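Troubleshooting log. The previous run stalled partway through. Resubmitting the same two chains, unchanged.
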Amino acid sequence: EAQVTQNPRYLITVTGKKLTVTCSQNMNHEYMSWYRQDPGLGLRQIYYSMNVEVTDKGDVPEGYKVSRKEKRNFPLILESPSPNQTSLYFCASRTITGQGNYEQYFGPGTRLTVT
Amino acid sequence: DAKTTQPPSMDCAEGRAANLPCNHSTISGNEYVYWYRQIHSQGPQYIIHGLKNNETNEMASLIITEDRKSSTLILPHATLRDTAVYYCIVRATSYDKVIFGPGTSLSVIP
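Second attempt completed without errors. Output:
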């Protein structure tokens, strides 16, 4: 089954304690992306990657890091989490080849609370 | 990317057709219209997309006006499970960022 998986699904942590949210896709997609969703602000892109070893900032990259060492994985790293990073996070992937059909597949989400 | 405008909320009676409008008056000739929906904090789900012709799949129909400045997503027989936030997005190339606006919150009422 084609899917994007994220772990953990729920996480409560304390300020400053480094954490990693993993994302993996099994569709051989080139493009992967991280979003955060906050009430009233909608979905905002944090980082994206067009392929292995190619990453770029989205709209709200401050406080986050990513890496793309393998095509299927795109972990989101919070080196020193702060309460304003409490949010619902989504990973997504899609192909970048072909013509017009760039359906994005989203993971189930990770709800992060930083106290 | 072209900006889209959608009503913030709509109601629809169960079993009726839900017609969700989207304005994209600055759309470029090579930009596609995509629709996604998000059911209560789940990951957004792709519904349908089109360029200029009307499109239909097992989930919905997409009607794009001839001037391409607006479109309508049609859920032919809405069920309670169609209650969700619906996002209309325009994008051209595979390299374009996907920008999600606030969407339309659709409530299907029994």
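Takeaways: Chain B touches chain A at residues 32, 34, 36, 41-46, 49, 51, 91, 94-95, 97-103 (CB under 8 Å). Chain B has a mean pLDDT of 91.
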